TrEMBL record:
InterPro entries: Cyt_P450 (IPR001128), Cyt_P450_CS (IPR017972), Cyt_P450_E_grp-I (IPR002401), Cyt_P450_sf (IPR036396), Cytochrome_P450_Monoox (IPR050196). It comes from Pogonophryne albipinna. It is an enzyme of class 1 (oxidoreductase). Heme binds at C180. Its EC number is 1.14.14.14. Signal peptide: none annotated. This is aromatase.
Length: 234
């Protein structure tokens, strides 16, 4: 995900329009392929990583899992699908998902190459052509911002607690002009998948299998993420 700083200048609609009109000057086939690859990578592996760690976190914290399930069952009210308006009826589950994205950010780091000299507030400068890395995994465990950072606590995301933190304390979808354009869609995917899973299954930790978490392009576990599942109504 190394790339030069700059404003997003191509969106998915542009890609489709340009791909349709072969005579139009603009993107080459390689450019279009690169953009489609970006969508496939950014949209798939990230969501798979997020969902895997959410299910793992639910298994590790049965009391929070129960609170999420109670909320989901009430919101769905007997339906076996989730509708648009139901997405806003599960605030506790949404906070749980965010806490999982904090401790297990699917994109654990990002990098940029500067195109011009940056002058910081204290007068120090960074020349053009510098490679900059941001460690999101560490940022989300920064003890000056997050009290007891290793503790899993969904209530960190109550609005009154969020307002006490700097806006860039939590950046699973990055920030600025090149942040994730799929973040609302991704949050909705995560809410639906979590809710419908909780409606059907109990998730149980397997204490014999501790994940070995590694920051690759997306956050992964070298030995997989092992949980046990049991139907809610056997
Ligand atoms: C939990 C799921 C997701 C996470 C954590 C995530 C995270 C991110 C992050 C951190 C970036 C910035 C990367 C960088 O600065 O180097 C990004 C960019 C991007 N994401 Fe997502 N993403 C997710 C899901 C999705 C989905 C579902 C889509 C599309 C359907 C998507 C499309 C994109 C695209 C196209 C970019 C590049 C934007 C640009 O360069 O201007 N992402 N994502």
């Amino acid at each position: 995900m190394d790339r030069v700083q700059g404003k997003r200048n191509v969106d998915f609609l542009d890609i489709l329009l340009l791909a349709r009109d072969e005579n139009k000057q603009g993107m080459s086939d390689e450019d279009i392929q690169a953009e489609v690859d970006t969508f496939m990578f950014e949209g798939h592996d990230t969501t798979a990583s997020a969902m895997s760690f959410i299910l793992y976190s639910l298994a590790c914290y049965p009391e929070y899992q129960k609170m999420c399930r109670d909320e989901v069952l009430q919101a769905l009210d007997g339906k076996d699908t989730m509708e648009w308006e139901d997405l806003s009826k599960i605030p506790y589950t949404t906070m749980f998902i965010k806490e999982s994205l904090r401790l297990y950010p699917p994109v654990p780091g990002m990098s940029r190459i500067t195109t011009k000299t940056i002058t910081f507030f204290d007068g120090r400068t960074l020349p053009a052509g510098s490679h900059i890395g941001t460690n999101v995994y560490s940022l989300h465990r920064n003890a000056t911002v997050w009290e007891d950072p290793e503790v899993f606590d969904p209530l960190r995301f109550l609005p009154e607690n969020v307002s006490k933190r700097p806006p860039h304390a939590f950046v699973p979808f990055s920030a600025g002009p090149r942040n994730c354009i799929g973040q609302n869609f991704a949050m909705n995917e995560l809410k639906v998948s979590t809710a419908l899973t909780l409606q059907r299954y109990h998730l149980i930790e397997d204490p014999t299998q501790t994940p070995q978490i590694v920051p690759r392009l997306v956050l992964r576990s070298l030995n997989g993420l092992h949980i046990k599942i049991k139907p809610v109504d056997p």
